Amino acid sequence: MTMDLQIILPVLFPLVGVLVNSFFGRRLGERGSGVFASLMVALSFGASVLLLRQLSAQPHTEGAHGLASQLFPWIQVGTLSVPFGFQVDQLSILLMLIITGVGLLIHIYATGYMHNDERFPRFFVFLNLFISSMLVLVMGDSFLMMFVGWELVGLCSYLLIGFWFSEIKNSEAGRKAFVVNRIGDVAFVLGILLIFTTFGSLSYTEVFKAVEERGAEVAAAVGTITLLLFIGATGKSAQLPLMVWLPDAMAGPTPVSALIHAATMVTAGIYMMARSHVMFELAPTTQTVVGVVGGLTALVAGVIALTQWDIKKVLAYSTVSQLGFMVAACGVGAYTAAVFHLLTHAFFKALLFLGSGSVIHGIEHNPKTATHATGGHGGGHHQGIDPQDMRNMGGLKSRMKITFITYLIGGLALAGVPPLAGFWSKDEILVSASQSNSLVFWLLAVTAVLTAFYTMRQIRLVFFGEPRSREAWHTIESGPQMTIPLVILAVFSVVGGVVINWPFEAILPAHALSHWLEPVLGKLEVAHFDFGMAGIFSLLAIVAMAAAYFMYKRSYNETVKQEPLEKLGPLYALSSNKFYLDDIYRVLVVIPFHGFATVFAQVIDKNGIDAVVNGIGGAVRNASLVLREIQTGFVRSYGLVMLLGVAVLVAWFVFTR
Amino acid sequence: MAIKDLLTVTAPAICAVGGTLLLLLDLAIPRGSKSTTAWAAFAVILLALASVPAQWGVSTSGFAGMVAADGYSLFVDGLLAVIAALTVLLTLRYNEARGIMRGEFYPLMLFALSGMMLMGHATNLIIVFIAVELLSIPLYVLCGFARPRVDSEESALKYFLLGAFASGFLVYGIALIYGAAGTVSLTELTAALSGPKPADSALLYAGVALVLVGLGFKVAAAPFHMWTPDVYEGAPTTVTAFMASATKAAGFAAILRIFLFGLAPLMETWQAPIAVLALLSMIVGNVVALAQTNLKRMLAYSSIAHAGYVLTGVAAGGDAGASAVLFYLASYALTSLAAFAVMIALNSGEADENHSLDTYAGLGRRKPLLAFVLAVSMLSLLGIPPTAGFFGKYFLISAAIGSGLTWLAIALVITSVISAGFYLRVIMTMYMRDGKNEAPIAGNWPRAFAALTATVATLGIGILASPIVELINTGIKSIVR
C-alpha cells in the first residue's frame, strides 16, 4: 500500500459509505445501511490508528511535518499553486481519532436510536458525509483544504439540523443557525483571501514559514487576518456573539445530532487556532480579544445553564461554556491546554449527551406508559409529558443504575473533581490564564464554580428524590446498545486526564500530550501543576456541588416545587431568558434579513415597480382596467427602468471622461 | 471573398449553412418523426465542434479585419457548441411532450448558435451588431415556440420589445463611436484611442456607454435585467436553458473583446461604471432570488447575479480578468445547464409545467441521480469547493484584488454567502422534505447523458482546473489585437 493511499484512507471509507447508502440505501434495508455506515467509520478509525503508529515511529523533532500526501497539483495558475494535499501530524491525528472514534460510537448508538425511522439510510448518508468533511478539515495541508472541509461541514450541519427541524413546524432555529454561521463564514473567507494576498500562498508550511521569517513586517496584516479567522471560529465554535445557534441546534429531538455537533464540529474553531498559532502569537491584540471572548462566553453560557429545565439545554449551554474555556486557553497562548481540554471534554460530554439520551429514551419508551409502541422518535409531538423536562424527572437513580453511575462520573468530570479527566485539563487552563491575563482568569474561575453548581443541580433533579411524574416512576434501564457506550465513555472520563497529560515526573510519563504536540505547537512553557490552585478549585467545586444538592433537595421535590435561584430576581430573569440574546438577534439579524429579501423582492420584482410606475402615471383607473393593462404595463415599466439606467450610465461616462 | 476568409469563421459558418440546409431537409421529414431533424442538428453542431481542435493555434483575421480566428474565439466556439449539443439532447423528449416538436425549432437554434459564435469572432462593431441580431431574432421566435401557451407568447413579446429597445441603444452607440473616432474596427479604435483624446470625446464616451447598455441587456446585468425572470419563466424550458447558458457566454464574449481589448485604452473610464453594474447585479440577483419559491424564476435571478460576478472579472480587466471571465463562463454555462436538465426531466410529462420548489420535495429518494445532478449544480452555483463554481469565483476574486478592486471582491464574497440561502434550500427540499409529487418520470437516455455530462464537467473542471486554465491562457495569448 502506498503512503498516499494510506493517508487518505480515513477520508475515503466514509465517502464509500455515502455513495453506497445514497444509491443502495433503501435496498440494503435499515439494518444493512446502518451496519455498513458504522463499519466504514470503524475502518476509518482503524486507518487512523495505523497512522498514529507510523507517526509515533517517526523522529520526534520540532518542525517535522508528519506524514504528507500530495495527491495531485490541484490548481497551478500563475503564482498560485495549491496541491490537493493531506497531511497527518501530531495535532491532526488527535482530532482524527476523536472524530472517527466518537463518530463510531455515535453511529452505533444511532442504529438503535433511529430505529424505525423511515429516513434511516438518508440519516446515515449525512452522518458519513459529516465524518469525511471533518476529516478533510483537519487533514488538509493548506488553508484552502481547510476551507473545503469547513464549508462541507457547514453544509452537513445545515442538512442535519434540517433533518430534525422538518418535524417541527417552526424552522426558525434552523434558519438562525444558518444565518449566524454564514456571518462567521464571510469573515473566514476574507481572512483566507487576505492570507493569500499577503503571503502569496495558502499552504500551512509556506505561510507559517513566511510569518516567522518576515515577523514584524507583516504584523499588521497578520493582526487583521487572525481577527477575521477568529470571527470565523466564533461562528463554528459557537462563541459570543455568534453562539446563539448551537443550543437550539443541540436541543432538537435527537441526541445523535447534538453529539455530532458537540464532539466534532465545534472543535473546528479550536483546531484552526491551534493550527495557525504561529500567526496568533504574532498578534497580541487578537490574542487578548480571543481570551476575553472565550472567557465571557464561558461565563455567559455557564450562567444560562444554571436555570434551564430541559435536560439537553443544560448540556448544550455547558458545551458552549466549555468551548469558551478552550478558546480562552488559545487566547492566553496555552494551545496544549486547549487541545487537552478538547480531548477530555469530548469524552465526558459525549458521555453526558448519551446519558441524557438514555434518560429521555427511558421516560418516553417505558413499557407501562409508552405512547407509541412502534418506536421512532416523536420528540416534538409526544402526547404525554415533555420527556426532556427535568421537572418531570427525579428518582431515576434506582431505576437506571448504569445510566446514573455513568452520568455521575461524567458530571464529576465536568465539574472538575479530581482525579477525573476534566479536572486536569481545566486546571491547566486556569493556571495558564492566571499567569497571563487576570481578567480571563477571573471569568474562568467564576465559571468553574458555576459549572459544578449546575451539574449537581441537574444530577439532583434527574436522579435523586422521588419521581415527579408517572412516566418517571415507571422508567426502566435502557438496553445494552445504549449502556455499553456509556460504560466505555465513563472509563475514559475517569482515566483520560491522567493518561493523556499526567503532570508529574512519576509513575507515568509526564506531560505526554505536551511533548507529543511539540513538533506542531513548538516547545511551549509547560504549565506547572499548582497544588494550591488545584486544591482551592477542587474544594470550591465540591462546595458548589454540595450547595446545589442540598438547595434542590429542600426546595425542589415531589411536594415543594420552587426554583431556589428565582430569589436572585433580575439575575434569574437574565439567565433564564438567555441574556435575551435570541431576542437581540431576532431584532438585529433575523427580521432585517428576512424582511430585506421580501421587501426587495416586492420592490425590485415586477409588482413594486409596476405600482410605482402606475403611481407616476397618476391616472385614476379602476381595478379592471389595471388588470387588463397589466401586461403592457410591465414592459413599459421595465423599459422605464432601463431608460433610467441608460441615462445614469451615459451621464457618468460623459461627465467623468 | 476567399476561402481563407471563410476559414476565420468556420464554426459559425457551419452552423449557418447547416441551419439553412436543415430547413430544406426538414420539408422531406414527415410530421411524426421530427426527432430526425434534431439528430441532424446535433450532427451539424458536432461538426462545428470538431472544427475547433482542427483549427486550434491559428491567429488570423479575415474579411478585411472584420472578424478574427484566434484561440479566444475558438474557445468560445467550442464552449457554445458543447452547450448547444447538450441542449439538443435535452429537447428530444421535452419538445415532444409539450407538442412543440416542430421542424423549425432546430434550424432556429442553429442560426442563433451561429450568431452567438460570431460574437466571439467579431473585431468590428458592425459585426458585433449583426451577431447580436443574428442570435436574438431566432431566440425571440424560440421563446414563443410553445404557442398557444399564453406565457410563452408573452415571454416572446416581452423579449422582443425590450430586445429591440436594447438593440437600438447598441446601434446608436456604435454610430456615436464612429462619429467620434471615425472607425468601427476594434484594432483601429485601440490605435486611435492610445494617442491624445479626440476632440469630440463626449460623443465617444456616450457611445461606449450605449454599447455597454446594449450588451448588458443581453447578459442580463442590472439594471437592464428586468426582462429576465418573465422571459425565462415563460419560454419553453429547453429554450430557457439555452438562453441562460449560451446567450450569456456569447454576450460576455463580445463584451470582453470590445472592452478588454478594443477599448483597453479607456479602461480608466469604463472600469468604475462596470464595477457598479457588477455590484448592482450581484445584489439584485441574489437578494431577490431569496424570496422566490419557483425554481425557474429563482434561477433567472441567479443568472442576473452571475452576470454580476462575471462583470467583476471584466472590471478587473487585463489578461487575468479575461482568463477569469472565460473560466467562469464555462463553469457557469455547464452548471446551469445541469440544473435546467433536471427541471426539464421533471416536466417532460403530459401535465402542465410546474417549477414550484415544492415539487422537488423528496426528489432525493424518488430519483437519486436527478437529485444528485441538481445538488451538484446548486453547490457549484454557490461556489462550494471542489466544484467548478468555486474556482470560477476564486479566479474572479483574485483578478479583482489584483487590479485594486478589493471592495468589489468583498462584495462578491458577501453576496455569494447570501446566495447560500436559496441554493441550499433547494438541496434541503430535495433531501429532507417528503414530497407529495409522485408523478412518474420516464427515463430518457439522451437527456440523462446530457445531464450527467454537464455534472461530470462541473466536478471535473473543479478538480482538474489547471488544464482548462492553461487552455484559456493559450487562447488569450493568441488573441488578435
Question: Which tags fit this structure?
Answer:
heterodimer; A: 657 residues; mainly alpha; two-stranded antiparallel sheet; 2 strands; B: 481 residues; two-stranded antiparallel ribbon; 20 helices; globular
Spatial strand sequence of the major β-sheet of chain B: 1-2
- Specify the overall morphology of chain A: globular
Tally of separate helices of chain A:
25
Helix proportion range of chain B: over 70%
Determine the structural class of chain B based on helices, strands and strand pairing.
mainly alpha
The structural domain count of chain B equals: 1
User: If interface size is counted as residues with C-beta under 8 Å from the partner's C-beta, which chains form the largest one?
Assistant: A-B, 60 and 70 residues
The stretches of 5 or more residues of chain B where confidence is low (pLDDT under 50) are: none
The percent range for strand residues of chain B is: under 5%
Q: Roughly what is the average pLDDT of chain A, rounded to an integer? A: 80
Largest sheet of chain A: 2 strands, antiparallel
